[in-house]
């Protein structure tokens, strides 16, 4: 713990007193909301003695001004003789914003991920509590509902397709829904609903609610669980009843009904008066799962995501903190939600990379969920069809219990998977051309047959844009971003080339900027695939789902809703199409190029390729009709591709774990990346060598198993005009890494201002 002794006698902001004889009850440990490490000791004024509670926000003197602080409890360490302390100036709230169990998690987070505790706490709090102002209360709110007055679309709406579509959507979700959900799903629906109300086909209902709490459409529970689901629910309910920390891996194939298991477990937890926390990768990409929670539990669910207004985020926090709402569903930051009497934590799609934050506080929400479960003596369920190797190894070592769902609901078969070997289907030409077709005859025929049956197709390619390389025919140079060490991507719809790292964009050049030679547009992205489908299948209704087409949450929701209503025959998309969607009309999934992610210089490349291919394949055959998957590849012998074709997760994971163990990579080691970037290449390289030498001087004995890789230029050596270097540290345990990380952190004070250094513990990516 650091001591708040930066105060001098001349500081007018606080009264300074000697505290040599102060007792622990008179000393307070405070985390200051500034980018400084450690906790600071302050005096507790007599007026506040006995009235402070851990977790309260306080106002404290800091430096030459005042700062927001968080009271964490009495200071344990005795104060050194002669040190003079400042008193806490004011308490900003009557009841603590932070529950005690959350304080423990935030302390762990700051220590493990090497980040200032005060900044960790500020990031966890909603607006309104993260600044030095007195406590605010959220005000009541009003919500409008729309209710259908008919049970089917009347014939007189045949000439009003917009009205018919909105009414059909309302009937499809049960006949009653919040207005904002309908307008979110169908842009422009508000005016259409007014017309329907005038014609007495729907009515509007006004309900007064607390802000942020939204009644959902009550949805019936399935009458029957599969035998595997029933056993899973029984196991989890028993664990909740028993109390205590128990982590589980719920390993269920795609379409096996994991969500219903979550719902039953949460339902049981709620019946016992306990709270539940459910983490999902992305709210916008998992609307069906979130919708089922809101439908099942109504106003007892707080849905936490970045799209909430500040007032709503504040209300959710207060409602959870007071226990008036007992279920929180949200993205990774919801791991810090103040759920009272926490009994159950669920992490859906636990393998998803989006649970790792890659800027500022670089935490892994899945790992923190397990830590929080242990601290709160709660049951933790990590669910996935393709578990991360870290979670799988924890299960095999006995740290986690395993629950398996090996079969799909209603005895639906897994999709059949067939390979299209592009070495045979599309042999390399003697001359490079940009007109070569992307879709093989076999894939195109399967798509034609599927659409002819009135069924739907998903085309998957995890690259945006039209062409990923612009290559000069004369000198052979590719068009690269001038600020980044990457090729520009051609976006034909915008007639621009774009850097996907720094965002710089400009019109497509007419010629090579080095020799004025003509440019070939090579490589494929979703835009080019969409164009080819439109050309080859002009009768089909085609749409594209990627970050370029879904530029807002509203557009994303409408596109997904339109596909769910079967208004789209073929959906071309990136990994956004693989995120847990349930579209019963999809019977064919086509993987345009299975090789794109295998060449990435990352030890997790094979694992992520297998996960992504398996997840997107799992979108096929989730309705009454069986599914089929076609996979195009130039590398059919690649381990992830070969194992995915056979639905062989066990074989893939066994092989990959053996490789990781032999090379001492996670989950058999812990890692930390030290990343540097600077505008001056020589200066940045010098700092990298300085930090490498520092680690070398303080390296523990070889028997400790700590290894340093680097320093070396990062795989992408330049982004936004800044040179990038990195050092990688590996060790058998995090405890073996901690002393080195502490020394590195202390050395950062000597790093020149022109070089930025970050420490990324348990890095998610190596680029």
Give the helices and strands, then pairings.
Elements: E1 17-18, E2 27-32, E3 40-43, E4 57-62, E5 65-74, E6 84-85, E7 90-91, H1 100-112, H2 117-124, E8 141-148, H3 161-172, E9 176-178, H4 179-185, H5 189-198, E10 202-209, H6 227-242, E11 246-252, H7 258-271, E12 275-279, H8 287-297, E13 301-304, H9 310-322, E14 327-330, E15 342-348, H10 365-376, E16 379-384, H11 389-396, E17 401-405, E18 416-421, H12 422-425, H13 441-452, E19 456-460, E20 469-472, E21 489-491, E22 496-498, E23 505-507, E24 519-522, H14 526-536, E25 542-545, H15 553-564, E26 570-573, E27 586-591, H16 605-617, E28 628-633, H17 639-645, H18 649-663, E29 670-678, H19 681-697, E30 707-719, E31 722-731, H20 734-747, E32 755-761
Parallel strand pairs: 11-16, 11-17, 12-14, 12-15, 13-14, 15-16, 18-28, 19-26, 19-27, 25-26, 27-28
Antiparallel strand pairs: 1-6, 2-3, 2-5, 4-5, 4-7, 8-9, 8-10, 20-24, 21-22, 22-23, 29-31, 29-32, 30-31
Brief write-up:
By secondary structure, the chain is α/β, with parallel strands linked by helices. Helices cover 30% and strands 23% of the residues. The chain has 20 helices and 32 strands.
């Amino acid at each position: 713990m650091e001591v708040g002794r930066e105060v001098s006698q001349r500081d007018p902001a606080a009264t300074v007193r000697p505290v040599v004889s102060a007792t622990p009850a008179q000393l307070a440990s405070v985390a200051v909301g500034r980018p400084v490490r450690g906790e600071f000791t302050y005096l507790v004024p007599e007026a506040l003695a006995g009235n402070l509670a851990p977790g309260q926000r306080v106002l404290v003197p800091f430096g030459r001004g005042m700062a927001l602080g968080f009271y964490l409890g009495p200071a344990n360490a005795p104060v050194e003789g002669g040190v003079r302390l400042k008193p806490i100036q004011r308490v900003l709230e009557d009841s603590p914003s932070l529950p005690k169990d959350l304080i423990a998690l935030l302390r762990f987070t700051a220590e493990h991920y090497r980040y200032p505790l005060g900044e960790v706490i500020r990031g966890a709090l909603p607006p309104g509590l993260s600044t030095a102002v007195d406590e605010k209360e959220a005000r009541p709110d009003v919500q409008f509902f729309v209710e259908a007055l008919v049970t089917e679309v009347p014939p007189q709406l045949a000439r009003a397709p917009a009205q018919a579509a909105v009414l059909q959507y309302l009937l499809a979700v049960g006949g009653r829904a919040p207005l904002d959900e309908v307008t979110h799903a169908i842009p422009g629906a508000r005016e259409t609903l007014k017309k329907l109300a005038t014609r007495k086909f729907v009515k509007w209902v006004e309900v007064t609610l607390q802000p942020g709490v939204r009644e959902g459409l009550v949805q019936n529970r399935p009458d029957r669980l599969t035998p595997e689901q029933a056993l899973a629910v029984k196991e989890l309910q028993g664990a909740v009843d028993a109390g205590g920390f128990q982590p589980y891996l719920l390993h269920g194939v795609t379409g096996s009904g994991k969500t219903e298991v979550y719902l039953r477990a949460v339902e049981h937890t709620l019946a016992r008066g306990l709270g539940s926390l459910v983490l999902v990768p992305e709210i916008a990409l998992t609307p069906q799962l979130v919708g089922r929670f809101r439908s099942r539990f109504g106003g007892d669910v707080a849905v936490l995501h970045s799209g909430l207004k500040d007032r709503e985020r504040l209300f959710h926090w207060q409602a959870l903190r007071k226990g008036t709402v007992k279920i929180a569903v949200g993205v990774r930051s919801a791991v810090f939600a103040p759920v009272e009497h926490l009994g159950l934590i669920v992490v859906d799609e636990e393998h998803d990379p989006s649970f790792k934050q890659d800027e500022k506080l670089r935490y892994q929400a899945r790992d923190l969920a397990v830590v929080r479960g242990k601290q709160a003596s709660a049951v933790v369920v990590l669910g996935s069809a393709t578990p991360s190797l870290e979670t799988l190894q924890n299960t095999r070592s006995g740290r986690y219990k395993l629950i398996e769902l090996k079969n799909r609901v209603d005895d639906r078969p897994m999709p059949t998977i067939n390979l299209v070997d592009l070495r045979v289907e599309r042999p390399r030409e003697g001359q490079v051309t940009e007109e070569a077709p992307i879709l093989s005859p076999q894939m195109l025929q399967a798509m034609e047959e599927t659409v002819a049956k009135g069924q739907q197709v998903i085309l998957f390619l995890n690259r945006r844009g039209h062409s990923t390389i612009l290559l000069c025919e004369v000198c052979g140079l590719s068009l690269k971003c001038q600020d980044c060490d990457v090729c520009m991507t051609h976006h034909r719809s915008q007639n621009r080339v774009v850097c996907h790292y720094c965002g710089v964009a400009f019109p497509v050049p007419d010629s090579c900027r080095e020799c004025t030679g003509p440019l070939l547009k090579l490589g494929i992205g979703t835009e080019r695939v969409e164009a080819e489908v439109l050309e080859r299948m002009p009768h089909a209704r085609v749409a594209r789902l990627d970050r370029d087409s879904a530029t807002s949450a509203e557009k994303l929701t409408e596109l997904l809703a339109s596909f769910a209503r079967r208004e789209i025959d073929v959906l071309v998309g990136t990994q956004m199409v693989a995120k847990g969607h349930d579209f019963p009309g999809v019977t064919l999934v086509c993987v345009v190029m299975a090789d794109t992610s295998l060449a990435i210089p990352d030890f997790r490349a094979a694992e992520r390729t297998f996960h992504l291919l398996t997840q997107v394949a799992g979108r096929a055959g989730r309705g009454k009709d069986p599914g089929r998957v076609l996979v195009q590849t130039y590398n059919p012998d690649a381990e992830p591709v070969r194992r995915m074709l056979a639905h062989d997760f066990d074989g893939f994971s066994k092989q990959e774990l053996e490789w990781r163990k032999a090379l001492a990579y996670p989950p058999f080691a812990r890692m930390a990346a030290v990343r540097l970037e600077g505008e001056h290449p020589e200066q940045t390289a010098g700092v990298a060598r300085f930090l490498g030498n520092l680690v070398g001087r303080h390296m523990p004995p070889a028997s400790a198993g700590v290894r340093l890789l680097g320093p070396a230029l990062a795989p992408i050596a330049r982004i936004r005009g800044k040179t990038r270097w990195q050092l990688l540290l590996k060790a058998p345990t995090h405890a073996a890494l901690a002393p080195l990380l502490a020394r590195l952190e202390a050395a950062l004070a000597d790093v020149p201002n022109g070089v930025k250094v970050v420490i990324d513990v348990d890095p998610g990516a190596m680029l």
